[in-house]
Structures are given as C-alpha cells and as structure tokens.
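S1.2 Input.
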Amino acid sequence: MRTIGKSDAPASNPRIFYGWFVVAATFAVTFVGFGSAYSFGAFLGSLQHDFAASRGSVSLVFSLAGFFYFGLGIITGPLADRWGSRRFAVVGMILVGVGLAAASAARSLTEVYLAYGLGVGLGIGCSYVPAVGALQRWFVRRRGFASGLAVSGIGVGTLVVPPVATVFIATCGWRETYLVFGIFALVVGAGMALLIDDDPYDRGLAADGDPPRPQALPRRAGGGSSISDAVKSRRFVGLYAASFVCAFGLFVPFVHLVPYALDHGASQSAAVLLVGAIGVGSTAGRFLLGGIADRFGRPLSFLMMFVGMGLSFVIWLFSTRFWPLAAFALVYGVFYGGFVALAPAVVIDYFGARNASSLIGILYTSVAFGTLIGPSAAGFAFDATHSYTLPILSSAVAYAVATAILAATSRAP
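S1.3 Output.
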C-alpha cells in the first residue's frame, strides 16, 4: 500500500492560496502581451507614414500577429498539458520582448511583419493559452471570477499601454517606444511568468483553497472529456463556429477606432483614449461579469456577451464625435471583457479540466482565422471606399450570426 511521503503530505493552509499567485502571474502575462498588441492603433499612423504604406497593408501587421497568437494555442495548449505551462509562458514573454525590440529596428514594412507579427504573435501564442489553461485547475466555484481577474490584464493593458505609447511616440519616436516595450516584456513579463504553476495537487493543495484530501493528491485536478469526444460534441462545434464568425469583427475596433476618430476630427491624444476606454470597459467586464456569471450561469452569460458586442457596433455606426465613440468603446469593452473571461471557463464547465489547455487552444484557432482577415479586410475596405460603414455593418452582422449559432447549440451535448 502506497504511503504518503513528505513531498505528498497535504500542505497546511497557507495564508494566501497559491492560486491567487497564478492569477497574478496570468494577469501580468496578459497585460504585457495584449497591452503591447492592442496599442497597435497608436503606431498605425507612424508606420503608415514612415513606410509610405496603405492603411490595409499596415493593418495586416496586427492581423498576422493575431493569427499567430490565437492559432498557436492548438500546439502550445497540448504541449503545456504534457510538459507544464510555466516554461511556455516564460518563453512566450521572451519572444514578445525580442519581437518588439526587432520591430524597432525594422527597415521596411516586411521586416515589421516578421518582427512584430512573428515575435509578438508567437510570443502571446506560447504564453496565453498555457497560462489561462493552468489557471482553470486552481478554481472551481470561483472559476469565472478568477479567470476574469486574471485576464483583466488584457483590459488594464488596453487602458494603460496605448496612452503611454502615444506619449512615448510623440517624445521619442515609434522605434524607441517599441524598444522600451520590448525591455519591459523581458523583465516584467518573463519574471512574473515564473510564478505560474499547473496544478494545486502538485503542491498538496485543492482547488479554491479548500482543505486538501490525501486520497485525492495522486490525481490531477479535475476530470473531464477526452479531446476527441469534446471536439466532436455539438456544444464544442457550436462554440467553435460562433467564435469563428464573431472574430471577423472582434478586433476591428482595436485597429481602426483610432484612425476612424482621427478621420472625424479628433486629436491624436483623444483618439487614443478611445482604445483606453475599451480597456476600462473590458476591465470592468472581466471583474463584474465573471462574478455575475458564476451566480447566474456561465453558458447563458457567455451568450449575452455576443449579443452585447453586436449591439454596440450599432452605436459606432451612428457615431462621429468623441463622446458617442467613447460610449461605444466602453460598452463594447464591457462585453468583450466578459467574452474573454468566460470563454475558457465555459469550455471547462462543459468538458472538464483534464485537457484544459488543449481544448482552449483548439477553440482559439477559430478566433485566429477571423482575426487574420477582419482587421486587414476593414483596412482594405476603407482604402477602396474611404469609409468604415461597410466594415462596421459587416461586424454587426457577424455577431448576429454568431449569436444564433451559439443559441442553437449551447444546450445540446
């Protein structure tokens, strides 16, 4: 009969449950990675000017990065389930830092594609899904709240980094700004990623900070479906299809809201604040909606995120001045934040935590393809029509279709 050795013994309850350190580390990873990515709108004008490029071709830089950081999860997710999430998160933050530093030295738009698209894209792809997947195992009852708190780093990064980038660009130039951001990613991002741990049972703990049960220690936290059974289910197919369709509009505001505002007479500083407003709403959405969803049901709450994001584009369609655009940014940010917070939690609710990173990574490939096409297509549509009406309308329609798909499949296993 197996005896419990010193390393297996249940740990005494610490003053601070280690799961909250994992939350803090995931917050830092998402703040650094997505703060760098979602500040791209602040750089768009400078890149367009310095490389004499069209708005569509510059927007493709962001689309390539988005494709990689969502698409790579299908590889890094399963590998993190097998080899551990910490190493992938650390490597990812290093890649983000190196990519930003390399972008600062780019001599052509093609080199920006390679440095930013590959560096930032692959870096977030290595770190995001493994970090979020590991976090799901540390919480059950408060999974929605913990997940929302962790990924609120995206919202805070969206709030803080674009205005900082605008000040740095005006003072030092876009190249120096990317270099500073790269150093920050290496020091803060990679350093905090070292705190990520995969499973409370490896530390003699139980999920949610509950007293550990010795007989449960040899098990990995959380059971669940096999990858094969999960991806063949009607629910997963519905989640995948809905996320794929909505992704065509998901990141259009992050890239094009700033140039849209500039086209309608806003100053550069005011226009960049609109991206910050998305960050404010996104942070609020992650904090508030994650906790509310834990109480009223995460699947239904997730569906409401699609409805809210789609309706917010109607506000944008009829807005040309700063304050209506700020209202759009806040509303969109709230529901976007809820979407990001609840997506991993809903996957685990449906299919269990056993293959958390793998299933989240597979789901995010749906967002990758939409992200590759959506922002760049919006840019090329503007180049052809000198208007954002078509991209905004198309995004609203995409959300309506995604909502219908999710509603039709969410109740069926």
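S1.4 Remarks. DSSP finds 16 helices and no strands in the chain.
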